[in-house]
Design brief:
Elements (H helix, E strand, L loop, with lengths): L2 E6 L3 E4 L10 H5 L4 E4 L6 E4 L17 E7 L9 E8 L3 E6 L8 E7 L15 E2 L3 E4 L2 E4 L8 E3 L5 E3 L2 E9 L6 E3 L10 E3 L4 E4 L11 E4 L9 E3 L2 E10 L5 E4 L2 E4 L5 H6 L2 H10 L16 H10 L16
Protein name: Hint domain-containing protein
InterPro entries: Hedgehog/Intein_dom (IPR028992), Hint_dom_sf (IPR036844)
Pfam families: Hint_2
């Protein structure tokens, strides 16, 4: 079940035009002029969104009074932008909800209004395989949702290595949260492959500074190439697969990454999943190196624009040699 962090409004202080009052036009007045902070010692709790298709599937969705784009007061980096929602429900009372863990005592300025309302948290940031994806194991292909710790997976570099942790969660699959579909054959896959937009797949550029080098790129960076598109759906079940070290594994016979638990990944994971992962690990998850160089999405998009030639989908973008 998707989860948000929540703080009661009594634990929030603000300066400038009141962003959390009921005065008409207060939202627009707060943008660029107001900032707020959680009181030192403010207690955070988790709230579940009733949209997982389970027992609470018929419960009404939580609709925010207003959703703000925020950023730490001292930051000018747009990458630090988060969304905070002002909600008021019988279960929570009036307060702030966010997919980010806001820090008590830190000031956040309001930089804009989020027009889309309550988005499914974490969904567009997840790094997962869609349930039903067949993963190569010592005993043959196995649906990713049926994997368990210690299952031996075939890796590209290190023979068979055990699964360390498996996480599952079900969220909406529309917009930026829609799965990315690779048609059969695009990555050497036997069947259509569905992964989250942030999930990285292995390619080998044929031109440019990375020619001949195997690299990992986010699936969303390849959307728009022949055979690669978003596949919107009402609900999608995502499955995280983590191994003792970051590995390239085989999903529908295509090469893709296992979960790399870096700081950013842990921050955008659904909080209860992140907590379960931390509890299952006996080592620091942030010390491992990636199995291949990771190419940022903007650089991949630039390569695609510069190197469209050849015949097969990724060859036409200068991104893969058969």
């Amino acid at each position: 079940m998707p989860t948000l962090c929540f703080w009661p409004l009594t634990d929030v202080t603000s300066a400038g035009p009141d962003p959390f009052g009921s005065v008409p036009g207060a939202e627009e007045a707060a943008v660029g002029r107001a900032h707020f902070a959680l009181r030192p010692g403010a207690a955070m709790r988790f709230i579940d969104l009733p949209d997982d298709g389970g027992a609470e599937a018929d419960a009404p969705a939580i609709e925010p009074d207003v959703s703000y784009l925020i950023r730490p007061l001292a930051s000018e980096d747009v990458a630090d932008t988060a969304v905070v929602h002002l909600i008021d429900t019988p279960a929570t009372g009036r307060g702030l909800a966010s997919s980010e863990r806001l820090k008590p005592g830190r000031a956040y300025r309001i930089t804009g209004l989020e027009a889309e309302g309550m988005l499914t948290p974490f969904a567009s940031q997840s790094i997962c395989f869609a349930a039903g994806t067949l993963i190569a194991t010592r005993r043959g292909p196995k649906p990713v949702e049926e994997l368990t710790p210690e299952d031996p997976l075939q890796t590209s570099d290190n023979g068979y290595r055990p699964v360390q942790w498996v996480g599952r969660w079900r969220v909406g699959g529309l917009g930026a949260a829609a799965p990315v579909r690779f048609a059969p054959g695009v990555l050497g896959n036997d069947r259509a492959l569905f992964v989250s937009g942030q999930h990285r797949v292995l390619i080998r550029p044929t031109t440019g500074p990375l020619a001949g080098e195997e690299v990992l790129v986010a699936a969303k960076a390849l959307v728009g190439l022949p055979g690669i598109a978003r596949a919107p759906c009402e609900r999608v079940e995502w499955v995280h697969v983590m191994m003792p070290t970051h590995e390239v594994i085989f999903a529908e016979s295509a090469r893709a990454e296992s979960m790399l638990a870096g700081h950013k990944t842990m921050m955008v994971m659904e909080p209860t999943q992140a907590k379960a992962l931390r509890q299952s690990l006996s080592h620091d998850p942030f010390t491992g190196l990636p199995a291949r160089p990771i190419v940022p999405t903007p650089k991949v998009e630039k390569l695609i624009l510069q190197h469209r030639r050849g015949h097969t989908p990724l060859e036409s973008a200068g991104l893969m040699r058969r």
